[in-house]
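pls ignore typos typing on phone
heme C + seq
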Amino acid sequence: MLRFALRQAFVTLMLTAPALAASPAEQRGKTFALTNCARCHSIDQVTPSPLQIAPPFRTLHKRYPIESLAEALAEGIVTGHPTMPEFRLEPDQINDLLSFLKTLE
Ligand code: HEC
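k done
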């Protein structure tokens, strides 16, 4: 009986662990988003954006392919909205951020 319970626990762990484990790039991207973007944009799957007019990051891929953001981020995102500061990211930071954004799709 105990043996069975242990096996169940192990199987459950094996099934859920890969979904939980974020790659290092995804984690760095998340930290970056948390530090720089989260005060306006929602960066998770459920909550509304703190700043209502800022699109939640989980909706970005519906507007355009996430890859197309890379260029905008490198050149400096300017959205015509004065409340959003202009960001210019290093290539590494862009990779990280895009990896994280893809986890939200
Ligand atoms: C001070 C608030 C604020 C912060 C901080 C902020 N944003 Fe925004 N962001 C906005 C607002 C407001 C909009 C909507 C602009 C509009 O629709 O005109 C927006 C829109 C966007 C869009 C959509 C652009 C488009 O053309 O549809 C992207 C992508 C984006 N932000 C990325 C980021 C990233 C990445 C960060 C962090 C590095 C960030 N934002 C930080 C306020 C913010």
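The chain has a mean pLDDT of 82. Residues 36-37, 39-41, 51, 53-55, 60, 63, 69, 77, 79-81, 83-85, 87 surround heme C (CB under 6 Å). more later
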